[in-house]
Specification:
Blueprint (H helix, E strand, L loop, with lengths): L1 H114 L4 E11 L17 H13 L4 E4 L2 E2 L6 E4 L2 E4 L2 E4 L2 E6 L2 H8 L5 H7 L3 E12 L7
Antiparallel strand pairs: 1-7, 1-8, 2-3, 2-7, 4-5, 5-6
């Protein structure tokens, strides 16, 4: 009986030893799994934080670039508007220049006609001034003859009314012309002409004739000075250019 009891004791010790090894292994595996899970969780969290931070930085960079681009677009729009204004001003100045050029050309043409450097032809008005009938009872016969003042009155009125060119007895009048009365004749630029004196003007016939016939105007003054005045409107008038010294 004592021998049997002695044999069972080693078996109990081995069993307890094996059981403690198994538990140790189980705890070790569990500890490893828990440690691995924790480290994996930490790694995921750090990766998530890094990814979120990187995305936020990228978003901020894109936002700044967008703002810069919008500011640049504003500057470019302002620059385009300035260029468009410059182009419009240039176009306007060019159009004004063309219009002014046409005006200058017309003015130059009118000056050439006035100076007599160009031959001219057109419709116009003929005004003839003739000495009045002498009244024997008058003390001064000069009260019945045409003087240079009468001729100047007609010429000035015709120019004011738009005459482009004027001639006296076929002789062209220019800017430096002079008219002098010597008794029954007048001298135009050194050339003498007896009465009657025919003053031709190229221009709008109706306008020229109407200006001469204004009440209290030139024609009435001439008649009051005993001058015989006749007018013929709508005539075709031709005037040569003045001969200039070379």
């Amino acid at each position: 009986m004592k021998k049997q009891n002695n044999q069972k004791k080693p078996e109990n010790k081995r069993y307890r030893f094996s059981k403690s090894i198994v538990f140790s292994l189980v705890f070790l595996v569990l500890g490893f799994i828990m440690a691995y899970s924790y480290s994996l969780s930490q790694a995921k969290q750090e990766a998530s934080e890094f990814t979120g931070s990187a995305f936020s930085q990228e978003e901020e960079r894109v936002r700044e670039e967008l703002i810069e681009q919008q500011e640049r677009n504003k500057e470019l729009r302002a620059e385009i508007e300035e260029k468009q204004k410059s182009v419009q001003q240039f176009e306007q100045s060019f159009a004004d220049g063309e219009e002014h050029f046409a005006d200058y050309a017309k003015e130059a043409e009118a000056l050439r006609l006035y100076l007599g450097v160009l031959p001219v032809e057109g419709n116009g008005l003929k005004v003839t001034l003739q000495d009045g009938e002498y009244n024997l009872d008058s003390a001064n016969p000069n009260d019945y003859i045409v003087h240079e003042s009468h001729v100047f009155q007609v010429i000035n009125e015709l120019y004011i009314s738009g005459a482009e060119a004027i001639a006296i007895n076929g002789q062209r009048i220019h800017a430096n012309s002079y008219i002098v009365c010597t008794g029954p004749v007048i001298t135009v630029d050194g050339v003498q002409y007896p009465a009657p004196f025919t003053i031709e003007a190229i221009g709008e016939p109706d306008a020229l004739e109407s200006s001469m016939k204004l009440a209290g105007g030139v024609m009435d003054q001439l008649v009051n000075d005993n001058i015989i005045v006749t007018m013929d409107a709508g005539q075709k008038i031709t005037m040569p250019a003045l001969l200039t010294e070379s």
